[in-house]
Design goal:
Length: 269
């Protein structure tokens, strides 16, 4: 894939080079994918999930959702596919809701025309590992129906290397600031031989930090009016072997101000 998403960082503190950015750096944990066969008790992207045996595997029956390439809606419901599983022990910088130490993201890999994002339809689960182990692990997980769907939104299983980093805003930089900094950003790009988005922004799979937007930001607000927090960015990376509709990204947001932790998603490419 031609898109360069690898966050390089700099051997310098960007706050020193561009003092106006001080305070805008955000901590994130990069989820660097590595092809392999992760187990159910490992953090992974597209890997098998530690799913409780007493809970049916999630399916999607949204009317009119369709699959490439013929844009036909399959009859009945479609099993969702695993997208991400994170254990708190692997992402210590990320704060889990009280009493939870696992995060699972699945989605229906079809295209959902009724949804604003017009892409896969995600579902998020916070769990406690010990609770799942107590009831046992669901063994009978339906395999993704390979062949029936284009692999646009079905990630291949990858182990992850969680890697903490500090990143700076890309699309989320206030426009006035962006304009004021542009000449000095260009100087730095020349000096380091790479674009700002490579040395300052993590436009890749990650938890926390800024969403890896490809386009203008579109931050969701929960029903009670709170601006939501960026939780996860899932992007098309070579190891995951999915294109996400022309190298798109899915961004998952959560509201921690509301006790039931409502979540929302955005997609762009
Ligand atoms: Zn669906
Ligand atoms: Zn809220």
């Amino acid at each position: 894939m031609p898109v360069e998403r690898t966050f390089t960082g700099l051997p310098y503190d960007l706050d020193d080079l561009l003092p106006e950015l001080a305070g805008l750096g955000r901590r994130t944990t990069l989820l660097l994918p590595k092809s392999g066969s992760p187990g159910v008790r490992e953090s992974s992207l597209g890997g098998p999930l530690l799913w409780p045996a007493d809970e049916p595997w999630p399916t999607c029956g949204q009317p009119g959702h369709w699959a490439w390439p013929d844009e036909k809606s399959p009859p009945g419901t479609v099993p969702m596919v695993p997208v991400a599983q994170l254990f708190a022990r692997d992402v210590p910088e990320f704060s889990f809701p009280e009493g939870r130490d696992m995060l699972q993201l699945v989605w229906c890999p079809l295209i959902h025309p009724q949804d604003q994002a017009h892409a896969a339809l995600p579902k998020l689960y916070w769990r406690r590992e010990a609770d799942v182990l107590a009831v046992g692990v669901l063994r009978d997980i339906p395999a993704p129906q390979a062949g029936e769907y284009e692999e646009e939104f079905t990630p291949s299983p990858c182990a992850v290397f969680p890697t903490p980093a500090v990143e700076y805003p890309n699309w989320d930089m206030p426009e006035e600031l962006q304009q004021a900094l542009q000449p000095r950003i260009e100087e730095l790009e020349e000096r380091f031989g790479m674009e700002y988005t490579r040395f300052a922004c993590a436009l890749q799979n990650k938890v926390g930090g800024y969403p890896a937007w490809n386009q203008q930001p579109d931050w969701p607000v929960c029903e009670r009016g709170h601006r939501m927090e960026h939780l996860l960015s899932i992007t098309a990376e070579e190891e995951l072997d999915m294109d996400m509709g022309d190298l798109g990204g899915m961004y998952i947001f959560v509201c921690r101000a509301c006790p039931d932790l409502p979540y929302a998603h955005r997609y762009d490419c």
